[in-house]
Amino acid sequence: MLSQREHQGVCKLLSLVMSETESPTYREEDYRFLHSMLMEKKVHLLFKIHERLKCFERQSCIPVMKQAAFTALELVEELKKQNSRDEVKELCALFSKPHFKNLLQVHDTVAQKDFEPSLAPVPDDALDEEEDSVKIVSLVKTKEPLGATIKKDKSTGAIVVARIMRGGAADKSGLIHEGDELKEVNGVPLEYKKPKEILPLLARSQSEIKFKIVPGSFTEDLPSDKIKLFVQALFDYSPLEDPTVPCKDAAMAFKRGDVLQIVNMDDDTWWQARSAGNDDSRAGLIPSKQLQERRFMLQRPKPLFKPQRPRPADEGGVSSSEEGPDYAAITGIHIPGLRRSFRLSRKSSRTKNVSWFWRWSTEVHGVLCPHTYREVVPSLREAKDKHRLVILIGPSGVGVNELKRRLVISDPDRYGISVPYTTREKKGQEREGVDYHFVSVHKFEEDILNHRLIEYGSYRGHYYGTSLDSVHRVMVTGKMCLMDVHPSKIKFIDASKFKPHVVFVKPPNIEELRLTRRRVKFLCDKGDPNQVRTFTEENFQDMIDLAETMEIQYGHLFDKIIINGDVTTAFKELKEDLEKLAEPGIQWVPAEWSRPTLKKTQRSCGHLTGLF
Ligand SMILES: Nc1ncnc2c1ncn2[C@@H]1O[C@H](COP(=O)(O)OP(=O)(O)OP(=O)(O)O)[C@@H](O)[C@H]1O
User: Fold this and answer.
1) What distance in angstroms lies between residue 43's CA and the mean position of ligand 1's atoms?
2) From the CA of 509, how far away is ligand 1's center (Å)?
3) Engineered SS bond to 168: which of 282, 340, 376, 585, CB 3.0-4.6 Å?
4) What is the SS3 assignment for 343-381?
5) Which residue has its alpha carbon closest to ligand 1 atom 15?
6) Is the CB of 516 under 6 A from ligand 1?
7) Pick from 456, 446, 452, 450: nearest CA to 486
């Protein structure tokens, strides 16, 4: 907004100019052009800047002379002619020093206000052509790329500016816009030239690049710093491996999990983004959500077409009945709460796979949303805040329990595990509240009805489940609660309360599985301690297949993916991730957590709202 005084100034100037144009050569068209130019917001801003600079000039100190370097030189010559006193000699020596000479030269540059790069004057004949309006734009060449891409307009054959990268040199200049037609670069006409022939012209120019431009219809964008859309990438992207990217140099690479600020979404296929927190950097091209979804849809979904292997007779432990997900084995050091898993077990995985395949095939043409980007918002974590709930998921046998066990052993004061509930009888050494909470069927079913269980299932006629209550009990002790659930249950966890951090434990490739697990023994039936065996090739393949399916279905919920090849490396990576999670500061969380609709969804699902 212009101040009253500035506004008056503009009006005065405007009326002066208008009165001057009332000459015999007055043309309605020129008049309107001048009027619209003077009404331009940018012209007003220029007046404003001019006013401010004037103000500054009045306050600032004025140099006594503008040629101090020359005066110093003359003085030295004079002094040399005088006497040879020590002080005079010292002064002459001082004035002759290169540092001092340079200092005076800098002074003179400032005094003469000679900061502008010298650009050649606009040639007289530049505007003689018949075009309605032609712009001559001179840009000083720096190490920074221009930050614009060009293309040939298919219908007219003209070379036009395809994109201006936000924050780049062209964008900052404010002089070149998308849709502008380039007529010449450094005096070379671009007619009949291909875009790739023009790039060397730009590269060849030394200190300045001069464009002759026919402006396109330009609509002012929202400045990039005003667009506050942040997304977390759910896939890795490398422009070098993308043959469809319009300009590899203008594109940016990113990894899954990187947070990007989207600064331009005008184009349906290529957005412009920069790394979050890097406000001054030039934006880069990234595939838009729509483009990435299309690409994803065009890929043949692998699990859908995977041939079903026949089920060996020795693995028929669980039928395809309504029985809940199977429980997996427990190995290693006993830690309370580590003794059960509702994740798909290796025994039931094949049966489950069949139904997942069916679901995938319907969802792929229906509601399944490919994982491209998820909107995130910054959330400030303070030192006094409770820890976030850590959810570990992965196919059975991949090592979720092993990693939980190592975390608890490494720092029992920091990590805790919720104690599960069961309706079965207490066995041998088991302790109430340590190994399980032993409850009646009636109590368990009441808890189900009251939505007090995050997850539950039945195994051999007994219920097993994790209650919100037990998670809460760990959290109030100030520990980070670790739990493993089936990924389909994540959406029912009250995100605004627990701020779940989901870690997907992924198997490595089959060679590494063979290498690291060949001798590993696991309990294949927790009800029978004699049923210990080693992993088979089929177990490995199941693990990989199931991980792939989980990633396709639930990948958008994963905050971190850990590949559990070498267990020490995987554990270190997990621990580092969780330590970072505990640190105070800004964390990026899904934007939907802060939207009121989430609560509605939860209520309509009838889950997990009763207890807290
Ligand atoms: N990276 C690894 N290298 C070698 N052995 C591993 C590795 N990770 C886990 N194991 C071992 O594999 C076996 C299965 O691991 P674990 O019980 O943790 O799997 P899980 O994912 O919890 O599966 P489930 O829920 O079926 O028990 C255990 O004996 C464990 O010690």
Assistant:
1) 69
2) 15
3) 282
4) CCCCCCHHHHHHHHHHHHHHHCCCCCCCCCEEEEEEEEE
5) 399
6) yes
7) 456
Query: Would the pTM count as exceeding 0.80?
Result: no
Ligand 1 centroid–CA 490 distance in Å is 22
* CATH architecture assigned to 224-298: Roll (2.30)
Closest CA to 607 of 475, 495, 442: 495
Provide CATH code, domain 324-371+385-419+427-434+466-581: 3.40.50.300
With 70 as the cut, is the pLDDT of residue 415 above it? Answer: yes
* Residue boundaries of the structural domains of the chain: 68-111, 129-220, 224-298, 324-371+385-419+427-434+466-581
SS3 at position 447: helix
Strand locations in 99-179 (E): 135-140, 148-152, 159-164
DSSP 232-278: EESS-B-GGG-TT-S-GGGB--B-TT-EEEEEE--SSSEEEEEETT-
Higher-pLDDT residue of 221, 239: 239
Q: How far is the CA of 39 from the centre of ligand 1 (A)?
A: 72
HEC readout, 539-564: HHHHHHHHHHHHHHHHHHHCCEEEEC
Distance (Å, whole) CA 214 – CA 160: 9
359/487 Cα distance (integer angstroms): 15
Measured in Å, residue 432 CA sits from the centre of ligand 1 at: 26
Structure tokens, 290: 């729509």
Give the integer Cα–Cα distance in Å for 216 and 219. 9
CA atoms 329, 333, 334, 340: torsion sign: negative
Least confident of 255-264, 353-362, 439-448, 551-560: 353-362
Ligand 1: nearest atom to the Cα of 341:
25
Contact criterion met (CB below 8 Å) for 164 and 170 = yes
67 lines ligand 1 (CB under 6 A): no
Q: CB-hemisphere CA count at 13 Å for 282?
A: 19
Contact 485 CB / ligand 1 (< 6 Å): no
Q: For domain 129-220, give the CATH superfamily.
A: PDZ domain (2.30.42.10)
Which tokens sit at 214?
């026919």
What CA–CA distance (Å, rounded) separates 385 from 499? 11
As for the ipTM of the complex, it is 0.98
Residue-wise pLDDT tens digits, 14-56:
677 666 655 555 567 777 777 778 788 888 888 888 888 888 7
Distance, CA 538 to ligand 1 centroid (Å)?
Answer: 16
The answer to whether the CB of 329 is under 6 A from ligand 1 is yes
Q: Chain centroid to CA 29: how far?
A: 49
Average pLDDT value for residue range 503-524: 89
Label residue 257 by pLDDT band (50, 70, 90). Answer: very high
Q: Considering only 8-12, 54-58, 118-122, 600-604, which range has the smallest mean pLDDT?
A: 600-604
Is the CB of 407 within 6 Å of ligand 1? no
Q: What is the mean pLDDT of residues 303-326?
A: 37
Cβ of 264 closer than 6 Å to ligand 1, yes or no, is: no
Give the closest residue to 305 by CA, choosing from 349, 352, 364, 345. Answer: 364
β-strand pairing of 462-467 with 421-422: antiparallel
The total of other beta-carbon atoms located within 10 Å of residue 233's CB is: 20
Exposure class string for 414-424: b at 16+ Cβ within 10 A, else e: bbbbbbbbbbe
